[in-house]
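Protocol step 4 of 6.
Sequence for Beta-galactosidase (Paraburkholderia phenazinium) entered exactly as in the expression construct, tag removed. Do not edit the line below.
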Amino acid sequence: MRLGVCYYPEHWPESMWEDDARRMKALGIEQVRIAEFAWSRMEPSPGEYDWGWLDRAVDVLGAAGLQVVMCTPTATPPKWLIDRHPDILPVGADGRPRTFGSRRHYDFSSPSYYVASERICSAVAERYGKHPAVAYWQTDNEFGCHNTVVSYSPAAVGRFREWLKARYKTIDALNRAWGTVFWSMEYRSFDEIDAPVATVTEAHPSHRLDYRRFASDEVARYNRMQVEIIRAHSPGRPVAHNFMQLFTEFDHYKVAADLDVATWDSYPLGALEEQWFAPELKAKWLRTGHPDFASFNHDVYRGMSKLPFWVMEQQPGPVNWAHWNPAPLPGMVRLWSWEAFAHGAGCVSYFRWRQAPFAQEQMHAGLNTPDNRLDIGGSEAAQVAEDIRAVLAAAEDANASIRSKVALVYDYEAKWLFEIHPQGADFHYPRFAFEYYSALRGLGLDVDVVPVDAPLDGYRLIVVPPLPVVPADFAERLTRSGAQVVLGPRTGSKTADLQIPASLPPGLLASVLPARVWRVESLRPNVTEPVRLAGSASLDDGVGRHWRDFIETGASDQDALEICARFADGHPAYVRSGAIHYFASLFDDALTTRLFAGIAREAGLSVTALGDGVRVSRRGGLTYVLNYGEQVHTLADVPDAAFVVGSREIQPQGVAVYR
Ligand code: GAL
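Step 5 output, structure tokens:
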């Protein structure tokens, strides 16, 4: 459990650096991330490197006893490079190249950028790879930020054709897989295939899905190149990338597979404002963030990180980039930090040391104000450092890794598929995955977020948010796990080529769920369908939203499913076959929670209804309780708790840690 900070020595007079480093250390910070946007200072003109300033910055930090997280600067190619190689600029869906003047203005498929990146990464890695103060690396910065994964450049289209050739081998196979006979879209050779963009009406969905898969693979290829260069010059120093859960245009699992540390950037207030949350929720959690949003991300990145995951950038105060940018309530920066550690983080690093008085992010808070006084976030970071000492002193296993009994399957392709073929305009995959996650967390359950190909043995409860494409061995792995399994609507509804399975959904899951989804409908946001549980006296136990699967349950008794709930018109809303449960709609939060509670109990898990905004996590021998709510929360039912941080009475925005 360590603290870090993001620092930009190139933004400040050199005369300030020593004092900055000394104050960081005094605050309890151990790691300092630098240089991810500093290319124009590292190489002011082509081939003319200026390392002097960076050498001195690294030395100053090292001399103060700080560890440096060195970054490759490829998120911001300098002006001279763009002028020399305009093909570096990515091309938007409107067919126009994006322009210089902000950041991430590069195309993952541009051959000149690949070469330029190899060159600058080698130069940085060679220079600092063995520096005693450099302990970690970060590749680039937030792949996918500002919608920069998919490009429609000639270079991208050329590489896409190669990608298609490798996948389908023959053009006939591609034509069959996509179903291009529809609307006379058949191709005679791979070279005839363009990017699926600027068509008269929607472009072919299988074509689009493959373009997204291709674009995602391009990110993984580009990152791998950087990782290999760093490893060659800096053996033994872990390599990280800072993901953002909001930027899901590429498969984070695939990129993380090449890294040592998966890290993510946590901006709970900005995320709440920019995401799907209803206006009431945006108002309710305005200054705290939603109690499950950061935690969902922690569990996502914990699962894909080989070493303990980190929060590479932690919101320290108001940000600049959301539509509205409220200030966190006092206590929240500390609470967010503890939430990360409770979920297994190895480091929480604040963005940024000091607010910049110039350029795009001048309205973004830091731990210090632009005139260099400690801001609220800074004092809270200092308190976290003190808490960490108490926690580490009290529990030898405080840094333990986490393995939960509940798994939630989370998949990037599913997001792209629903974006391409939503069938209901607001069918937003991350939202539905989040809602299932949130229901589980509200019951006090710890959750592992896993990819669809993860080993599932050892879990008691496996929750699968809508997952159209399932792997061939999924049914077998689910049953072999012995867990109770909840499948969301639309699971198994498509083949990998994005076609309807021959036997209709649930397709490859039919062996464990003998049902036939013969019709579907999507529901407008103002339309809900009442749901009644089997044997319930109530007419209406909750509602289905967004979507309905119409399920045929099989004629013979032998393969008949148990119908656990019906819609008002009699169609099944929730069916099960042994341990496999299938929801035919997305139920409201209360009904989802109620159903999950029952199924979790059946799985032998103990569930607790927590207070509004109260969340619990367990790591090592310690239990962490976080209060996002407005009321004091009293821990009445743990008489033997020995408190390491806080006490039985947890104030709003407070934290308690007990053994
Ligand atoms: C992140 C980004 C940082 C900074 C920050 C502001 O997405 O990685 O460079 O822009 O947002 O909140």
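Step 6, annotate. The pocket of beta-D-galactopyranose is lined by residues 141-142, 145, 244, 265, 267, 313, 319, 321, 351, 361, 364 (CB under 6 Å).
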